[in-house]
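Data deposition worksheet. Section B asks for the primary sequence of the deposited chain exactly as it was used as input, without tags or linkers unless they were present during the calculation. Section C holds the resulting structure in token form. Section D is free text for depositor observations; keep each observation to a single sentence. Incomplete worksheets are returned to the depositor.
Section A, Depositor: J.P.
Section B:
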Amino acid sequence: MQIRSFRNHAAALAALILSILGSALLPNAHAQLIVPAAQAVATNVPQITGDGVWVEIFPNVGGGGAPQPSALEGLTPIGSVLCPKAYFGRSAAQAGTNSLERFFDDVTYLPGNLRGLNVSNFILRMTALFQVTRDLDKNRATPEIDLGLYISLVGGLHCRVGELTVTNAYRTSSGFLPPIPLAFETEGLYPITLLYAADSNRAATLQLWWQTSGGTAIIPTDVLYQRVDPADRLVNFDTSPASSGARLTNQFQNLGLLFRTLSGDLQATSAKPGIFVPVTPSRVYGDPSSNAAPGELEFWFVEPGGTNASTSPFVDFYVIGATGSVVTAYDPSNAVLFAREYHGGLAARERVTIDHPAIARVKVTLGAGNQNAAIDRLAFRTPNDAPDLRITSLEAPTQVVAGEQFPVRWSVQNAGNRPAQGSWLDYFRHSPDRFEGQDYYLFYERYSGELAPGAGFTRTNNVVITAQYAGLRYL
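Section C:
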């Protein structure tokens, strides 16, 4: 009896799957395309909402049919842009103008390097991580999460979900393709990639819809992510207490975040929409004046709801329209942890990621005049003045035999801002599913001593799973 398909999802600390050859076979009785759990990049659902789709433009290579990935091999896009959703279009009256701005103007403003360009027969490559959760399931009678994918277009399309090609199509008139039924084995984040080819002499449209338990709609920004990260708190300046015109101080103290304006008239604003292009409409945090004084702000971490200084191990936000912005992060001793300049220019959205066990304060210089920048979508890990032990990787062979030893290798890191002292146990169990309950003890390892912030260790143990547990197992 052989144990096989031992897959690692350590990027999200997710389950490690074993398929043990036995008498039981996994049923596949549905007509939908089954998307296996192994194709999710993370099976832990993010605790914050998404930031949209990433779009790259390749000119003079599309048109006349469904594009294939091989068509872009060795090519460099002329530019790229973050969009809150896939809702693009150029009407028949605009056909022949080849204007990128007209294709994107229903969803976002293009950054300066893509404005004023005329392109012919372009291919658009759109990528995102697509969040699937149990509450979206439109057929609760099946164990999978059943969704419908609906795509409206004029032109050519190649679409992949996970590693599955779900459609190749070409339309010469506007309309929806036949619905694509998908059945996801588990919750998680699944890669979705669309290649869209626009003809130069026709209208060009591309819209990505879904059908869920809640009905049919454009797939929203909330479930479209650019990557997996550990943030569990989000400030996006679009809702109360960051109402229009709000100047931030202690409005987010309950989350453990305080703000201070060092210079300029910084506020939540939707002004200068062609310069301050938000990640998610409609507001950013910056100075709305066209003659803005040099702007500078800082934010720092406290115990949630209190005033005692604390730290966070992760901060992530976007700098909007930077022509020379500077971001600097400090630890509790005021030592510099991170310092970087940003020069994306008009309407660009540049991502700032600071990953360190003890981030105490962040300062952002935004520039002056009509060239000043803003920030948007500030995500972070809840401040915690304590050690935080995490399993950061989990490895095992792809095939093992029931009753014989095989190695399990794992790594632990202290992601907190205080040393972990004393002793603790790393417990390992196996289960027939991803959920608590029906779990069976496998082994444990004891660790004693001190683990400093940011420090970690890796261990290996040889273990055995007996033949009585034949079938699909999670570790």
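Section D:
The chain has a mean pLDDT of 85.
The chain has one helix and 32 strands.
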